[in-house]
Amino acid sequence: MDDRVESSTEAMAANMAMEARAGKGKADGEELPLVTFALFAYNQEKYIREAVEGALAQDYPNLEIILSDDCSLDNTFNVMCESTKNYSGCHQVKLNRNSVNLGLGSHVNKVVAQSKGELIVLAAGDDISAINRVSRLVEKWRSLPGCVAVCSDSLVISGAGEEQNVMAGSPFRGSLDKGVACYFSGVHGCAYAWTKQIFDVFGEMLQDTICEDRVVPLRAALLGNTGYVAEPLVKYRVHGSNISHFFATDPTKVMEKTISIHARNLVIQQNYVRDLQKAITLGMEPEVEISLALRAATNQVSLLAAKIQFLQHGLIRKLQLIAWSATRHPKQCLRWIAIVVAPHAYLRNQMKNLGVD
Questions:
Q1: From its phi and psi, is residue 205 left (phi > 0), alpha (psi between -120 and 50) or beta?
Q2: What is the value of pTM for the model shown?
Q3: What are phi and psi of 42, to 5 degrees?
């Protein structure tokens, strides 16, 4: 290449970068809100570079990017640093490494407290966001009155990056108590975004929370609407270490995994109870629907705690719980009787549910 052409190209690139910074936050002369793109990582050195590159490539002009590592034991944070050291784009980039491992719930709480954007777009260290992900989510968010959260579809990929299928991400539509019963299924954390108002009103999630995408939808339903973009805006990577997957490979750990699932669900329902109590305190409407949902969540908390005790303790405690559930949870009572009578059948069924060969 001619030296003059190369020099001219470099100058043009520099001017474009300066213009991008000068016009940051504007689209056709319109001021755009600051958005936070929060990328959470833990022991994902194999995938983190692609996740960071997806964040830096976002075409939304007024973007704060927080790359946060939860005290990984591998090289994740070093790769994050390497991936950003030569970045010269218009986005604000912040790097964070927790001094101790906080766990997902506390990690999200910390990053939300540090964020400055009106909308927070979540990303995991093993997923890849499309270049227009933030732009499309913001477009939907701003077009829908009362919108406090927005989600999209996602494209499932393997650990090696092979495309598999599109996973729909439509938000739950229904009464609050029905949402509590099904953990507000539909929204997937890999493709989710929500306004900071959701945390300003309800505060932090419980620190043991590991499924924030089951907690936030209730808050969103209490505060307003959830928008949906029917496009796969993120590649969701499925591999053996996904935090939301509980599939066991060791038959001896089936009961341990089952208890882990109950414990995960218990924390979600405890979040529901606290948030619904806050909604009642704040006088949110509809009052009757909120009260019904609170009753449903409270019942689930007691039942899940009992399920954990049933699996952890011996025959005497099992019989006590069967007696306790006879009038409160008759269907569960029958299941527990079946487990006591035929424990091996229950174990085989759980092995099947957890994908154990």
A1: beta
A2: 0.88
A3: -160, 115
